Amino acid sequence: MAPISARRSEPRRSKRLKSKMASDHELLQTKPDGSATCASTHCTTQRKNKMARIIAQSDVTFPDDVVIEILSWLPPKPFFRFKCVSKSWCALSSVAYDLNKHFQPTAHGLFYNTLPMEAGEVDYFSTNASSVGFVNFSAEASEVDNTFNISLDSDNLKVVDCCNGLLLVKGWDLGSGHDSDLYVYNPAIQNILAVWHIPPLKHLSRFYEAFSLAFDPCVQSQIHVVCFTGWCKEGVEYNYFQTFSFKTGKWKSTKKLGHGVRIITYVQGTFVEGRVHRLTTRKEILSIDPNRCSYQKTQTLHSHPSSHVYIGQSKGLLNFLTFDNNLKLSIWTLKSFDSQEWVLKHQLSRMNSVKNLVMHPGNNILFVASQHNRLTSVDLNTGKEEELCILPHGAALSHTSPGCIWVYMPYYL
Q1: Which residue from 346, 351, 279 is spatially nearest to 309, judged by alpha carbons?
Q2: How many whole angstroms separate alpha carbon 374 and alpha carbon 258?
Q3: CB 314 within 8 A of CB 361
Q4: Which residues lie below 8 Å from residue 253, measured CB to CB, with a gap of 6+?
Q5: Is 307 helix (H, G, I), strand (E, B) or coil?
Q6: pTM of the predicted model over 0.85
Q7: How confident is the model over 333-357, as pLDDT tens digits?
Q8: Are 330 and 288 in contact (CB under 8 A)?
Q9: Average pLDDT over residues 306-331
Q10: What's the distance, CA 294 to chain centroid?
Q11: CA 292 to mean position of chain CA atoms
């Protein structure tokens, strides 16, 4: 580390500060993988805050490259604490953020819903107690609020969608009828970004209501929720969607979908290239542009009627997945939305009975929930499987009922 420069008129103060910083530097060691760790239990949060105050109140200055180096090694909580030391540190933090490995897009775990049991089986359509489960992949995931007990004031919670580090969570209280609330929640920093109240359904004939979250980290102010609804009246089916903008705080006008265009509520959607994508009962992909409140349909490949189909995204590309009765999994990637050309990327045979699956957004990894709630990761390049854990019996994982798993990659800003 470069020497600390201080005013000559205060040599004693500089010497004390140097001694203090040297002591703290000895306590902060690094692991072989480069992540910071505490070598002593005495390195407490209170001491770190005190160190930050000493630096802020002193006349000590650091070269810009030293500040960036310091910030680029810090874990999330100390990073945001130390960037508040001064205006110059705050300005340099944007450079350090891009260099800091703690903020690189890595999967910290999987969220899933747990539902009540009825006669030894999961009751997927129960309005009774529901909670959220989390599978931890990383030691850093301990910083994530995966219980929501700190922030969300509802007896029952379930994840509705997950998009680029934000969760769309539905909460309701027992005995409240069909009243519920939707939260846009960032568990990495324990921050509620928006709350919407969902009144009871007015149309008794309405048969579904589903939500998707749209969030682009490059445009932080643009958070949208897309609501899909459908009901039947006098034998005629009506399907609509509308979008809520976090920026304007208003629902945009309701748009009618084409005849027979109905999404599959139990197959989760994905967010790619600024659009929400959901699979329809005709095995088409419905792509919603939340900014323009418009949509287009993308034709998928022909698959056997008994095949289970999914969609997902990996490395910014839309994928279509089919799992047939021969236990063969095929993964196709959309080359472009204009040409609607699909390219076969992976095929895996002799897969165990799949209950649900989800793609890793940044790597060629597939997470599979199979029979007996066995959760495994599959390397799509090598086909190697690794068992991660056994999920609880109440986990909502069925591929024919509304239960999903979501890969969680934290978003800290």
Answers
A1: 279
A2: 39
A3: yes
A4: 242, 293
A5: coil
A6: no
A7: 998 888 889 999 999 887 777 788 8
A8: no
A9: 88
A10: 24
A11: 24
User: Tokens for 107?
Assistant: 């999967």
The Cα-based distances of 218 to 36, 150, 221, 246 in angstroms read: 27, 28, 9, 15
CB 226 within 8 A of CB 214: yes
CA distance 213 to 290: 10
CA distances to 76, 109, 182 from 411, rounded to whole Å, are 10, 13, 19
For 294, the token pair is 């418009």
Q: Which residue has the higher pLDDT, 31 or 389?
A: 389
Tokens 């140097």 -> residue: 18
The CA distances from residue 139 to 74, 144, 178, in Å, are 15, 10, 38
- Structure-block tokens of residue 105: 């897009």
Asked if the model's pLDDT at residue 53 lies above 80, the reply is: no
CA distance 238 to 232: 6
Average pLDDT over residues 164-168: 92
Sign of CA pseudo-dihedral 56, 59, 60, 61: positive
61: pLDDT strictly greater than 80: no
Contacts of residue 121, Cβ cutoff 8 Å, sequence gap at least 6: none
Q: For the purposes of burial, counting CB atoms within 10 Å of the CB of 345, is it exposed (0-12), middle (13-18) or buried (19 or more)?
A: middle
- HEC-encoded secondary structure of 141-180: HHHCCCCCCCCCCCCEEEEEEEECCEEEEEEECCCCCCCE
Q: Are 272 and 318 in contact (CB under 8 A)?
A: yes
| Contact present, 171 and 180 (Cβ < 8 Å) | yes
Residue 27, token pair as written in the block: 């306590």
Tokens describing residue 234: 């006098």
